[in-house]
DNA sequence: ACCTCACATGTACTTAGGGACATGTACCTT
DNA sequence: AAGGTACATGTCCCTAAGTACATGTGAGGT
């Protein structure tokens, strides 16, 4: 009897493990999890509520989680089981990391040569602004954590590490967008800088 | 008659535009495009050949591309049409950027508190090594470009910008993984650093 | 009493993504 | 002449993701 819930062979499927990980902190409903995904994991791992409810059913069927309590408006809180805890730990330590990135901003940059100079500069300014703002939000979270606003539990220490990643990535992208604005658009003659 | 090929409303679907962008540089076959995705766009936008061939059919049906030539082993090279060029330009300037990231390494970091200290340190060392190596590869490409190995066309200038993004992102992730190793695992008593 | 909003869960449908499978050809080496 | 490798294109099928739609409840304000 194989209780592993990775599709067929040993591949990733991280939403599933994201849910397990969040439930490892304590019981929560689909609604709670959808909000936590949106608020905290959203920037690095998007998930919509239909997918979350569907995954919760699957995890429940697989015995990884079970209903912990029924609340007010049909609310169903799930609790992680020992099997679920073992699975998230197995995933974290044994399953190899999928390093695939998927960054539309960078994909677009391959095709900047197709854009008018003015449009491109405007685009890069908007990008820089967006990334800088997002980095600032991350720094705000980091500062709040360092002030102790979220307590000092192990979970929030991990959260601090994740926030640091968001901060560094968005800052890197903001700096990149700024730098890109200084790259001259094209060399008119054989004579340019460099 | 609506020639726009975004699914229903005005949303992203970037593989399609990635193909259009590559074809804007000149005719290429599905096989060529699959390799270029793998080699160049792979790190920021993965695509497998079945998806590419399927998209080429759709783009062809939509009049965005057309068969340019037939080659040796059933090879079919496609050429971008004026409509296709207009579409990629429209996408670049009018369509708003999807800033969704999807970084499993960072998702995992939310759950580091579930890992044994030794496993976590080993994991972070591997992550640091991977990101540092990938950043080094990007730097190598950047240096080759700056030496003029790829010529000085507008396309390669855009490529240089994209490479710079890869370099900065991977370096940020490498630095992050290194930094994370210095974060003390847990506070045993109420007395720690911070 | 009514209204509105946040809470709460789900179904249905469509597209995107990715692995496995299938097929065949030109070229190059031995 | 045979065999291997890179070239080249595709189908099939299942899973993941994402949008729209549908439904209902409890709490708080007016």
| Architecture per CATH nomenclature, i.e. the level-2 architecture of the largest domain in chain A | Orthogonal Bundle
CATH class of the largest domain in chain A: Mainly Alpha
Q: Whole-number average pLDDT of chain A?
A: 90
Largest sheet of chain A: 3 strands, antiparallel
CATH topology description of the largest domain in chain A: Arc Repressor Mutant, subunit A
Rounded radius of gyration of chain A (Å):
22 Å
**Biggest interface pair, counts:** A-B, 72 and 72 residues
CATH superfamily of the largest domain in chain A: Winged helix-like DNA-binding domain superfamily/Winged helix DNA-binding domain
Alpha plus pi helix count of chain A: 7
Structure characteristics:
homodimer; 194 residues; mainly alpha; Arc Repressor Mutant, subunit A; three-stranded antiparallel beta sheet; elongated; DNA-binding
Provide a compact summary of the structure:
In chain A, 58% of the residues lie in helices and 7% in strands.
Structure notes:
Two copies of one chain form a homodimer. The first copy, chain A, contains seven helices and three strands, in the order H-E-H-H-E-E-H-H-H-H. In chain A, helix 2 (about 30-40) crosses helix 3 (about 50-60). Mean pLDDT of chain A is about 90; it is low at about 5-10. Chain A has about 190 residues and is mainly alpha-helical. Chain A has helices at about 15-25, 30-40, 50-60, 80-95, 105-110, 115-145, 155-180, and strands spanning about 30, 65-70, 75-80. Chain A folds into two domains: about 15-95, Arc Repressor Mutant, subunit A; about 105-180. In chain A, a hairpin with a 5-residue loop joins strand 2 and strand 3. Chains A and B meet through helix 1, helix 4, helix 5, helix 6 and helix 7 of A and helix 1, helix 4, helix 5, helix 6 and helix 7 of B. The first copy, chain A, binds a DNA duplex (30 and 30 nucleotides) through helix 2 and helix 3.
């Amino acid at each position: 009897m194989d209780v592993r819930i990775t599709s067929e062979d040993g591949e990733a499927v991280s939403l599933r493990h994201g849910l397990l990980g969040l439930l490892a902190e304590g019981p929560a409903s689909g609604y709670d999890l959808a909000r936590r995904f949106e608020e905290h994991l959203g920037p690095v791992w998007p998930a919509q509520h239909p997918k979350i409810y569907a995954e919760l059913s699957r995890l429940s069927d697989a015995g990884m989680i079970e209903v912990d309590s029924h609340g007010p408006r049909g609310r169903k809180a799930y609790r992680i089981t020992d099997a679920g805890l073992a699975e998230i730990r197995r995933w974290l330590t044994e399953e190899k990391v999928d390093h695939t990135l998927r960054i539309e901003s960078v994909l677009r940059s391959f095709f900047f040569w197709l854009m008018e100079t003015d449009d491109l500069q405007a685009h890069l300014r908007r990008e820089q602004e967006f990334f800088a703002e997002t980095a600032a939000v991350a720094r705000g979270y980091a500062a709040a954590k360092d002030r102790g606003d979220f307590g000092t539990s192990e979970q929030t220490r991990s959260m601090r590490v994740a926030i640091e990643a968001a901060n560094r990535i968005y800052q890197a992208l903001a700096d990149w967008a700024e730098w890109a604005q200084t790259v001259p658009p094209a060399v008119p003659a054989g004579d340019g800088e460099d």
